[in-house]
């Protein structure tokens, strides 16, 4: 039997009740919530039932809470003691077993922090370089110049992937970021390269469309002045450690939803 929690309605209800709030990017305002539907789909599609999820950038509570509600174990690591305390408080109100677990620490120490852990899925939404400064902690990646940021980011990804079991998937949700001159850093390809350097294959990419809000108005002014296009999406990057057929077999049947086989290539990808 599968466990469906109707994430969109459920999370919105919990936000209204004050049980779930945003991550550090919201400045604790409750306005920034990781997409719960994407979270549920990622767990159901890429993590075995009862599996262990590792999240090296666990700023908000949604990924841990949804994991618990779907019967997956979850370990998240984040530098903000305030955010970890908020996550734990929220989870205590609405989660049963398995309870999500958060550690207040530097993810560059994830190899020792998660010693003995064998993860079935890596799932995270990392800081987008210096797009938002989360704290004045010198260990905070958002405080670093981009070359230093990428070096630390690659280290965390490599150590996280070493904890991932063979024949398993990993997924990062990222977006592109501009430098002070207005040019893209190349954060998306840098993320792909980091996982490939860690020995994983680039398996899937999806685009998550986010709410436009006032973007059309802002983008029109920006385009007139700089020819920069407005952006209202994030990249959902999926990687595989080992054999994708064995990784798929470990997950089992898709828990819900229909998949339209658009092609006849080896892994069902469209031609």
Describe it:
By secondary structure, this protein is an alpha/beta fold. It has a single domain, classed as Rossmann fold. The chain has nine helices and seven strands; from the N terminus they run H-H-E-H-E-H-E-H-E-H-E-H-E-H-E-H. The protein has helices at residues 7-17, 36-46, 62-69, 81-94, 110-113, 146-163, 187-197, 215-226, 244-251, and strands spanning 52-55, 73-78, 101-104, 119-124, 164-174, 201-209, 233-241. Strands 3-2-1-4-5-7-6 form a seven-stranded mixed β-sheet, with helices on both faces. Helix 2 (36-46) packs across helix 3 and helix 6 packs parallel to helix 7 (187-197). The radius of gyration is 18 Å and the shape is globular. 35% of the residues are buried. Mean pLDDT is 81; it is low at 22-31 and 259-271.
Write the layout of secondary structure elements.
Elements: H1 7-17, H2 36-46, E1 52-55, H3 62-69, E2 73-78, H4 81-94, E3 101-104, H5 110-113, E4 119-124, H6 146-163, E5 164-174, H7 187-197, E6 201-209, H8 215-226, E7 233-241, H9 244-251
Parallel strand pairs: 1-2, 1-4, 2-3, 4-5
Antiparallel strand pairs: 5-7, 6-7
Helix pairs in contact: 2-3, 6-7
């Amino acid at each position: 039997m599968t466990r469906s929690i109707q994430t969109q309605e459920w999370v919105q209800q919990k936000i209204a009740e004050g049980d779930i709030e945003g991550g550090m990017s919201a400045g604790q305002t409750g306005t920034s919530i990781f997409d719960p539907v994407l979270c549920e789909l990622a767990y159901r599609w890429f993590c075995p039932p009862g599996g262990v999820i590792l999240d090296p950038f666990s700023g908000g509570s949604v990924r841990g809470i949804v994991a618990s509600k779907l019967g997956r174990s979850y370990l998240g690591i984040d530098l903000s003691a305030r955010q970890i305390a908020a996550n734990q408080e929220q989870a205590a109100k609405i989660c049963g077993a398995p309870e999500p677990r958060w550690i207040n620490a530097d993810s560059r120490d994830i190899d020792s922090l998660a010693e003995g852990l064998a993860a079935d899925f890596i799932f995270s939404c990392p800081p987008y370089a210096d797009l938002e400064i989360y704290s004045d902690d010198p260990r905070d990646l958002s405080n670093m110049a981009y070359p230093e940021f990428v070096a630390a980011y690659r280290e965390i990804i490599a150590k996280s992937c070493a904890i991932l079991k063979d024949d398993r998937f990993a997924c990062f949700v990222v977006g592109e970021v501009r430098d002070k001159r207005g040019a893209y850093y190349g954060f998306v390809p840098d993320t792909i390269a980091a996982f490939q350097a860690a020995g994983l294959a680039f398996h899937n990419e999806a685009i998550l469309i986010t709410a436009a809000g006032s973007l059309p108005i802002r983008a029109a002014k920006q385009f007139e002045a700089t020819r920069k296009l407005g952006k209202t999406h994030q990249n959902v990057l999926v990687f595989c450690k080992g054999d994708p057929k064995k990784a798929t077999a470990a997950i089992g049947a898709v828990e819900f939803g229909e998949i339209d086989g658009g092609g006849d290539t080896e892994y069902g990808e469209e031609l």
